Amino acid sequence: MRTISLSQNGGPEVLTLIEVDTPEPGPGQVRVRLEAAGVNFIDVYHREGAYPLPLPFTPGQEGAGVVDAIGEGVTSFTPGARVCWAMSGGSYSEYAVVDQDTLAPIPDAIDTQTAAAAMLQGLTAHYLVTSVYPIEKGSVAVVHAVAGGVGLLLTQMIKARGGIVIGTTSSDEKAERARSFGADHVIRYDHGNWANQVEEIVGSHRVDVVYDGVGRDTFED
User: Fold this and answer.
1) Which pLDDT tens digit goes with each residue over 114-133?
2) Distance (Å, rounded) from C-alpha 197 to C-alpha 185?
3) What is the pLDDT of residue 191?
4) Which domains occur in the chain, in start order?
5) 83-95 burial, b for 16+ CB within 10 Å, e for fewer?
6) DSSP-assigned beta bridge partners for residue 67
7) 3-state helix, strand, coil in the chain (%, to 5)
8) What predicted TM-score, i.e. pTM, was given to this entire model?
9) Residue 94 backbone zone (phi > 0: left; psi -120 to 50: alpha; other: beta)
10) Which is nearest to 87 in space by CA: 50, 48, 59?
């Protein structure tokens, strides 16, 4: 099979297309024929070495496809099933071996590319609105980088739970995109102190939670 491998950290030029033996699933594992692979910032961090992995390795923490073979003890999936996953490496490849406990079935109404693109960022957004801070009706949330992948999913999940979204972003185009996904208010954090702008919106209510996926440029305020 063909796979993307890297034997040293660096820029995109270290990604190399090679031929390797197709892997066999072990006990509790499933082999998936990839139809789509998610591309995320964590893949870049792995490639650059910011989040180091043992070399050589095949990047890709998210994917979707069709079950091709199953290992001993697998009871949850059979060959031909459409599946997706996140946080299991090696999706930049024609085939990947994944633990059955990591896989999720793809509903018939969802295409494979959407499933591959939604898992890692979708699970992130989901735990942020349920486990990290459970959004309730009337909760006021500030979502930094609101027009990014996680930000847009967060916005929709917050609205679905009855919350109010104040998004921050860095361009008018991104602001309009966030509004189209349901953000109640959008401010430009590059146009002065974002905290002051939020205070003008919420007044004495203040905010219940801030989801900060930016960091350095927003954290201190």
Assistant:
1) 999 999 999 999 999 999 99
2) 10
3) 83
4) 2-116 (3.90.180.10), 133-211 (3.40.50.720)
5) bbbbebbbbbbbb
6) 32
7) 30, 25, 45
8) 0.83
9) alpha
10) 59
